[in-house]
Specification:
four-stranded antiparallel β-sheet, single chain, binds adenosine-5'-triphosphate, nucleotide-binding, globular, ATP binding, ABC transporter ATP-binding protein, 8 helices, 23% strand
Length: 252
């Protein structure tokens, strides 16, 4: 479960083409990142997958079902953690599950503890740091029954130290609860550190400029960031993005 297929998706706003015939697949259990410049249509793509808006053309297929224009079938974690301020940590964590039936409180407590938030179960979100709030939002996404989790730049508001910590935490928890993840970011390091595969988007309108399978072994830890292999990949992706923006040939 969690196999996503996007078929020739197009979307314009006020006559401006944002996505043009975009096709991609996310395999079951895969961590796929879409890397693209600001304004390349990454959030628009997520709004389409989540059924918040309808495409002009194209289809979205999840586990062989056409879900185009349908809401509530994927788990979505936005840039800001979007916790309800009047609900406690545990009640926020169980929210996605509650909306789809009965919540498993024991499981939620277990995950909160694994996320290093033991003792905060009954606290309100205001008592948490930015990184802690993101953990709660991610637990909520993981506990929701949907097989595909879409993460829209979830760490962009965090400082570098917290972000790296969150990356390591996310990979550890993802390895344990194995779900399909579609992640968008414009941070190259983040994309390389986390992903099985990276799709680079071009802008105006968005098309797939390049696609890369990332060979780093798992589990990954922060030492990877300083290896020659990592820096080599970083140069390759930089070149892919910036040559394209400068209007030169792409690197395939
Ligand atoms: N509801 C809307 N009405 C009109 N234009 C829109 C709407 N939503 C998005 N756009 C336009 O579509 C383009 C792509 O926006 P989108 O937010 O999807 O890009 P993005 O890649 O997620 O950018 P960022 O990385 O800055 O968040 C932008 O030019 C934006 O102004």
């Amino acid at each position: 479960m969690g196999h996503l297929e996007i078929k020739r998706l197009s979307k314009s706003f006020d006559g401006k083409e944002v996505l043009k015939h975009l096709s991609l697949q996310v395999e079951e259990g895969e961590f796929l990142t879409i890397l693209g410049p600001s304004g390349s249509g990454k959030s628009t793509l997520f709004h389409l997958i989540g059924g918040l808006i309808e495409p002009d053309q194209g289809e979205i297929i999840l586990d062989s079902n056409n879900i185009t224009g349908q809401r509530g079938l994927i788990s979505y974690m936005p840039q800001q953690p979007a916790l309800l301020p009047w609900r406690t940590v545990i009640d926020n964590a169980m929210l996605g599950e509650e909306l789809h039936g009965k919540a498993d409180k024991e499981k939620a407590v277990e995950m909160i503890q694994k996320a290093g938030l033991a003792g905060y179960e009954d606290s309100l979100p205001d008592a948490l740091s930015g990184g802690m709030k993101q953990r709660v939002a991610f637990i909520r996404a993981l506990l929701s029954p949907q097989s595909l989790i879409c993460l829209d730049e979830p760490f962009s508001a965090l400082d570098d130290f917290t972000r790296l910590e969150m990356h390591q935490w996310l990979l550890a928890i993802w390895a344990e609860y194995k779900r399909t993840i579609l992640f968008v970011t414009h941070n190259i390091d983040e994309a390389l550190f986390l992903s099985d595969r990276i799709i680079v988007l071009s802008a105006n309108p968005s098309e797939i400029a390049n696609e890369y399978k990332i060979p780093f072994k798992r589990p990954r830890n922060k030492e990877l960031l300083l290896t020659e292999e990592f820096l080599e990949w970083k140069r390759k992706l930089n070149k892919s993005i910036f040559q394209r923006q400068d209007g030169n040939e792409t690197d395939h």
